[in-house]
Amino acid sequence: MLKVEGVAKAYKKAGLFSREREQVLADIHFACDYGECLGIIGESGSGKSTLGRLVLGIEQPDRGSILFEGESVTKRRGRAGKISAVFQDYTSSINPFYTVEAAIMESLRLIGMGGQEASDKLDFLLDQVGLDRSYRQKHPHELSGGEVQRVCIARAVATNPTCIVLDEAISSLDGSVQMQVLQLLKQLGQTYRMSYLFITHDLQAAAYLCDRVMIVHRGRVVETVAVEQLKDVQSAYARKLLGMVML
Amino acid sequence: MKWLKNALHDKVAMASFTFLVLIAAAGIFAPFLAPHDPKAVHMDMRFAPASWEYPLGNDQLGRCVLSRLIYGIRPSLLWVLAALVLSVGIGGIVGFVAGYFRGRLDAVLMRLCDVMLSFPGYVMTLAIIGIMGVGLENILIAFVLSKWPWFARVIRTSVRQYAEADYVRFAKAIGISDWQIMTRHIALVATPDIAVIASSSLGSMILQISGFSFLGLGIQAPNAEWGMMLSEAREVMFSRPELMLAPGLAIVLTVCAVNFLADALQTALDPKLGRSRQKPQALVSALDTGISGKSGR
Ligand SMILES: Nc1ncnc2c1ncn2[C@@H]1O[C@H](COP(=O)(O)OP(=O)(O)O)[C@@H](O)[C@H]1O
Ligand SMILES: [Mg+2]
């Protein structure tokens, strides 16, 4: 379904006269199947978020191709609503002027829903992420981090996507809330049979949710293993990463 | 429409807004409101004190001060407002395009702004008056030319920042068009910023146009304009100081109202602040514009 081949991305280094480019991603290959949850793990600065933006079609890769159901993701109309996203920073993931209702309605309008049908669907979605109707008129600053992420998840699944990119979606939440949101994601993934691209630096969270994990280091894929075989990773970097968790 | 509710609860803001609307309406309907012809000279009534027929008295040529004040609203407030809307409009479009699309277009547009901004506003205005001659239209043209790059730069900076927000990323990710993102998201969050910079520069522009008229570069006699009325009253400043009062107060009150409104707008438009806000800021910024406006003259 999602096929990433030979993707590379470089950014211009900061500074007025600098012509140097910083290679953020190099030669990335992977694929993600329908209903699969692929974890992308790496330390901070390893290029995970950049990869996420490329997969979402927000930015273009310098080289290589990213195909979603056989079509390039950079074609906006082709992917409309089929790939969705949840981001890390809950303070800026909903427009501060929008109510919860307006935020979710944006997604519903995209798939051509309106009127009573959309209103019913909105209640259904809110219920599904564990919020009640009273949240409809609230603004994001009136919600806790966990609640915002729940609204973001509702908004993301509203377009009935085939795939959701979760970029550190739980990393800025507190411990127990993290677990609740993880459980919600797991349950939604089963009901909708969506595939997840779960980007995180937290190996344990990835191990809980994912079927496979891909370990990224300095913009390169180090190793891809099934979660059951996490203990048998080959590469030195993956062992080190795993060792930190095991200790 | 929560912000409207917020604004309605702020008494100072409401008072300022009502005041400005009334003033603007008075300017538009000047021919119906003004008791006399603002240009009619009555030499026999020079410096006549206030009377029933001439509520604010007569000036050094016996013209009705109230009528001149009312007609003066047009250049002093309405034309300045038009120039402001035009420059914010141009600056807004340029700023949105540059801030949202970035890249080469951004670089080209911003260099253009830099070139325009490298001339100080007053030099630009004086140069245009020098080339095109003295007059209100030329000052207004100069205002638009010298202000839009500034608005473009400020608006671009805020658009650029908002375009980075995760809600914009999400909208892009699910495939909402750039046009819709700009109108539904960025225009919405950038409106308070734009409203604040626009209204705070309205105050200084009113002062500037009065300043230019005071210097005799703006509107030409015998037309009425507040700055020009002040300038005319200056000649009799010691014998008839009360003649400075009417135009002076008109300028001060209008600029204050604009500044109070600018400040209230900022707080009212911020969804996070809701109905709790602090006021003292308004005074500071009112003084601020006043000082910069004066030092510019
Ligand atoms: N828009 C950008 N412009 C320049 N450099 C960027 C940009 N986005 C990311 N980078 C650089 O790319 C590197 C990887 O960033 P990121 O993908 O956010 O990593 P991660 O999400 O794994 O922490 C960082 O060194 C960052 O400085
Ligand atoms: Mg990141």
From TrEMBL, chain A:
ABC transporter domain residues: 2-243
**Which terms under GO biological process does the entry name?**
transmembrane transport
For this chain, one GO molecular function annotation is: ATP binding
User: Mind telling me which InterPro entries this protein's record contains?
Assistant: AAA+_ATPase, ABC_transp_ATP-bind, ABC_transporter-like_ATP-bd, P-loop_NTPase
Signal sequence extent = none
Q: Which UniProt keywords apply?
A: ATP-binding, Nucleotide-binding, Transport
Stored Pfam families:
ABC_tran
Top-rank taxon: Bacteria
Family from the record = Belongs to the ABC transporter superfamily.
This one is known as ABC transporter ATP-binding protein
TrEMBL record, chain B:
- Going by the entry's taxonomy, the superkingdom of the source organism is recorded as Bacteria
Membrane-spanning ranges: 12-34, 77-101, 122-145, 202-222, 243-262
Primary subcellular site in the record, as a coarse category = membrane
| Keywords per UniProt | Cell membrane, Membrane, Transmembrane, Transmembrane helix, Transport
- Pfam families registered for this protein in UniProt: BPD_transp_1 (PF00528), OppC_N (PF12911)
Topology of the protein relative to the lipid bilayer:
Multi-pass membrane protein
Q: List, alphabetically, the CDD domains matched.
A: TM_PBP2 (cd06261)
- Its GO CC terms? plasma membrane
Chain ranges of the ABC transmembrane type-1 domain = 73-262
Query: Where is the protein situated, by its record's location annotation?
Result: Cell membrane
What does the record list as GO biological process?
Answer: transmembrane transport
Q: What NCBIfam families would the database entry show?
A: opine_perm_CntC, Opp1C
Of which family is this protein a member?
Belongs to the binding-protein-dependent transport system permease family.
Q: What is this protein called?
A: Nickel ABC transporter permease
Q: Organism source for this protein?
A: Brevibacillus parabrevis
